[in-house]
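lol so apparently i was supposed to do this last week
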Amino acid sequence: MLVAITRGLSPNIQRCELTHVERQPIDFERASAQHRAYEAMLASLGCEIHHLPGEPQLPDSVFVEDTAVVLDDLAIIMRPGVASRRGETAAVARALAAFRPLQSIEAPGTMDGGDVLCVDRTVFVGQSTRTNEAAIDQLRSLLEHHHYEVATVAVRHGLHLKSGVVPVAERTVLINRDWVDAIPFDGLRQINVDPSEPPAGNALLVGGRVLVASSFPATRRRLEQASIRTEVVDATELAKAEGGLTCCSLIFAVR
Ligand code: CIR
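anyway here it is w/ citrulline bound
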């Protein structure tokens, strides 16, 4: 069975952190409707949804991906790179404790879950503005006991590693090679985002399907041409908060 932890929108989403996009009004009702449709899509693909409430004092709390990394043997609670997001981890840690033993990144380390992706026993970590070397060292020593290898990846543009590269099938990634260094992924099959859609490198693999945002039809065609089955979701409102499709859930298998 798959579990997806999600979190409702904060009524103060308008005060979210922004790094690469200009602030523009976010329509709360429209964003909530898109988020509910996203949860319904995850449920239709076999996820049991564990929905946590959004918090007024935590504007970015809908983006649960950044609060934790869930692997088969354990979950690691992050210490987000911006102070405004550090209060988000407690509720997610409480929810995850039912499913995995927990470890955590400690100060001075900072790491966002959006910078971490796992393929087999390799954990790729993006060197972004949110994730520092102290946290990468901590992650490496936590995971060596569990027989994972940690590989670092330079993030050249975009907020996180997963803004520019995500898994889309077994040993296959969708990648924007201008945004992230492709060399660490050399051993994997790589599908490039369509050049007309640079932000399309954030898609979500779940239950054998890949969710693609409706704004990226050309990249969706590339995935379909590579025999990858896709589903489309509308994510335009939360894109204004710099969120993509992976950001709004933590998905993991439960035996
Ligand atoms: C932030 O800047 O932290 C939020 N406004 C957006 C976080 C998106 N998370 C993600 O890509 N994993």
